[in-house]
Specification:
Structural class: mainly alpha
Number of domains: 1
Order of helices and strands: HHHH
Distance between the termini: 28 Å
Mean pLDDT: 93
Helix content: 55-70%
Oligomer: single chain
Radius of gyration: 12 Å
Number of strands: 0
Length: 70
């Protein structure tokens, strides 16, 4: 599962042609204080919190929504 977690963000960054440096700047613009090295480590390790994933998605203007079962 860690490989899948790693590939989710890496694929999106590649698709949008965004480097770790640029992602760091985008995240800082949203108030999330992560250095390029911290971001790189978290993603390459493949184990990061759901909060970090939401922060990355917010910084990339990706909306994640979950539908509630009825």
């Amino acid at each position: 599962m860690k490989n899948r977690a790693k590939e989710i963000i890496k694929n999106q960054l590649k698709k949008e042609n965004i480097t770790y440096i640029k992602l760091s700047k985008l995240m800082q613009n949203r108030g999330y204080e992560y250095s390029e090295n911290t971001i790189r480590s978290k993603i390459n390790r493949g184990s990061y919190s759901f909060v970090f994933l939401l922060e990355v998605c917010d910084s990339l203007d990706i909306d994640i929504s979950f539908s509630q079962p009825k």
